[in-house]
Amino acid sequence: MTVGSLFFFIFSLCSLALYSFAKNNRSEISLSIINLIFVAIVFGSIENFIPIVSFSILGYTSILIVRKYKNYLFFIAVLLINITYFIIIKKYTIVSGVEIFGFIYSTIGLSYLLFRSIHLIIDVRESVDDEIPTISQYINYQFFFLSFISGPILRYQEYNDNVRDASRTIDRVEINAAFERIILGLIKVFIVAVVAHEITVGLPVSFLGDKTMLVGFRAAPDFINLFFTSVETNEPIIRIAFRYLWHSFAFLVFLYFNFSGYMDIVIGVGRLFGFKISENFNHPFLAYNFIDFWARWHITLSSWFKTYLFNPLLKESALKFGRGKASTYIAVPALFITFLVMGIWHGTTPAYFIYGLLLGGGIALNMLYQLLAKQFFGRKKYKIFSQNTLYKNICRALMVSFFALSLSCLWLDIAQLSSFVKMFGILGIMKLWLIATIATFICFVFWEKATDIFARISPFLMGALFISGFIYLLIFWGGIANINFDETVAFLESFVSAVGVVLIVFSWSILYHCQTNGIRFFTIPLWLQLLLFSIARMMNAGAVPEFIYKGF
Amino acid sequence: MLVLFQNLFTRGFDLLVNVLKIATKITLPTILTYIGLIGVSFYFYPSQTSTYLDSTWAFDSYLVSRPAYITYSAHSIDTTRPAVVLIGASNTGVGFRPPELSKHLSGASFSDLWLGSARVNDYAAAIDLVYAGTPKDQRSNLVFVTGLAAGQTLRYPYRSVIIEQMERFGLFKQVGGVYKYSVNSTLFDISLLLLRPFFLLQSGLSNLKPFVGNRNTAVAELYKSEKPFTCLKTNYGFDEYHLDEYSRSQFDALLNLADHIKKYGGTLVLVDMPQPECFYQQSKLFKYYQNYKKPFYKSAISKGAVYLNFQDISSNRYFRDQTHVNAIGAAVISKKLADNLAPIINRLNGKP
């Protein structure tokens, strides 16, 4: 069952029916039934489900052990057993020879189960009252149908409060807001992310010797064509360089809208039940540095790592190295390790180790720069300097382009990554980053200016742009403009195809700008949004990609 | 149980009722608008009742593009008697004209499934649809005629949007490499009724009628033109980029098609389309095509296909450009095709 599918909404409606007439003290039973049915549909067979069940049993046993034996060694051993078992059943390449189950099974939601298990184990050990969830509470928490597949990573207390406090008399404003959120999520997942995904699919990048990619642009002068040359063969690689950059940014857009749209749907459906599910995204592209960015992107994951890895690391380091002047720098390696682990968590192959190195390196260098700059300029001067709009946009462009290029580890395998490094060399990669930064900077500056201007022109303009974006998509997806992705897709075609979603996203930016600046605006009625969405969705013949975080 | 019932009739369903009320408030205008659009689509375009297709005039129907016209109408061909189905790129559509063919050959219906694509796999998809809409006992009545030529057939494997059209609404499925209808004919007709607003939007948003009001005159002009072709002074281009790869994939697909038609019943007629004499003399591509085609056509004939060579018609006065005949040429080659089809149609009608 895909979140956002018609089947999911029918399931949610039936669940709501069941949940709404169960008495408060029976809500846990009705929730158990809902979660059980959901999991049964997701896994399809008992065999498929066995590894996940075994992991959950291990989790609960661990909680019982930790409650009984508060010994530090016991605690570490329990954690290690859980992590090792996770690595084995998740089939990380480092344990490729180890096979526990002799059949094919699914690991959907496994990574999120690990987070929740570790969170409970640590919290139970640190709690004074030794209170632990009952088995049914534990099962409901681990298999909560709205967060099981791809999060958000709810803390147990938060989940428990949600269930306990779920209001049965939700007012109409709240229900309307829930539907608004669901429709926003549907547009993000099934329209914006799909176009971005089509661009990545239609503009494939290969570093494994496809000769047709190792050429320059026919019409471009030599100095442009020779800006990028292969370190190995000295051939011009400008075409593949630009393909790579365009693909990288399309992937970033796909990732963001796919995941944040999923969250919008989940949060919206949760609101109908009376649950206040944690936000996972908060306009991450408004951040000016990595520390702020990670407080806005996949918030529950970052927060989990902050609580259970970064803070203990910092505490241990502070104890070891003291609280002298140098102690402020202790956060740098702690951040590096935290994000290295977070990167590795994302996947089972060595490419994810590189992803972790890049995430860790990015945020650690960012932190180091901030500390040094504060030391060099003094706190006050640095604060004034860092408020400068030009400076902020440069920082933002550097950060977003770095992140977009780092994401290559999610769509290139290790062989491709190795060829990429050999082909471009370190200097070539720095050039790629520079071009990406300049392009991102220009886009941000224009986007911000345009948003401000358009927001003030007319309160109706936002709606007009939103509708125009959809009409453009109808033309594009209906094949009326004869823009079809094919094996021969060109840059121009992919740019042209992106126009529709740019208009839609731009209209959202204007809406946000109006809301935050108190500018008058008119929103499109939900029924019209639903109509435009339905028609645009039907016009598209392509497949909708799976939720990208489902596999994690 | 009693508690559940108590809740059911007191306050238990409050939340669900509220949610449903608001959901209705959102979806009802959406549905009503949609129903309104269905009404509008009937106002602009009544239902089609013809038993043959002529995709040249697709722009006059609510299925505004040729691939959509074929995709959603292919089942309406009358196959109770011999049915000649012309399928191919623009040279086939412009060259073989159903009214001309009907004039010279009675006892068969003529449908033009000109796709606007030169990719043989696209023809195969359209042919699948014709088969899927034809009862098994009538399939032998089908005669598929396709025109091939140096140029588009070899160099332009770009697909039409027919496959996208098929994948769009879930009305078709691919089983064992063959496209079929995924619903029965009644449901298919109901679905088409419900989908009318989509086609209306396509039509309305394109630069054709009705909303913009620009009737597409290009097709009519193309049909009427009698202007003779003037040879180019320079040599015709010969782009070798992927030529062999494209040619092979096209001809392999053609052989598969011949196999497919033999298996399903029906006749495949391959026509080597005429081209102007200066093209014969100057084009390297034409020479490449002459050498390349022989073994493939031989194989196709062994698979039951009928091969007709119309390349003896080469006077420039019959052409409007290097691949398309003009109105005079169309009359000539339509007559020639009718003459060649006569024995096949007579055989199907049980005549000697």
Describe this structure in words.
With 552 residues, chain A is mainly alpha-helical. Chain A has three domains: 164 residues, no CATH class; 157 residues, no CATH class; 166 residues, no CATH class. Chain A contains 21 helices and no strands. The longest helix of chain A has 44 residues. Chain A is globular and about 75 Å long. The model of chain A has no long low-confidence stretch (mean pLDDT 86). In chain B, helix 3 crosses helix 8 and helix 11 packs parallel to helix 13. Chain B is globular. In chain B, strands 2-1-3-6-7 form a five-stranded parallel sheet, sandwiched between helices. The relative contact order of chain B is 0.14. By secondary structure, chain B is an alpha/beta fold.
Largest sheet: spatial strand order of chain B? 2-1-3-6-7
Number of strands of chain A: 0
What is the total tally of β strands of chain B? 7
The count of helical stretches of chain A stands at: 21
The helix content of chain A, as a percent range, equals: 55-70%
Radius of gyration of chain A: 25 Å
Number of domains of chain B: 2
| CATH second-level architecture of the largest domain in chain B | 3-Layer(aba) Sandwich
Biggest sheet of chain B, open or closed, and with what strands and sense?
5 strands, parallel
Short synopsis of the structure:
The complex is a heterodimer of chains A (552) and B (352). Helix content of chain A is 69%, strand content 0%.
Labels describing this entry:
heterodimer; A: 552 residues; mainly alpha; 21 helices; 69% helix; 0% strand; B: 352 residues; alpha/beta; Rossmann fold; 5-stranded parallel beta sheet; two-stranded antiparallel ribbon; 14 helices; 7 strands; 51% helix; globular
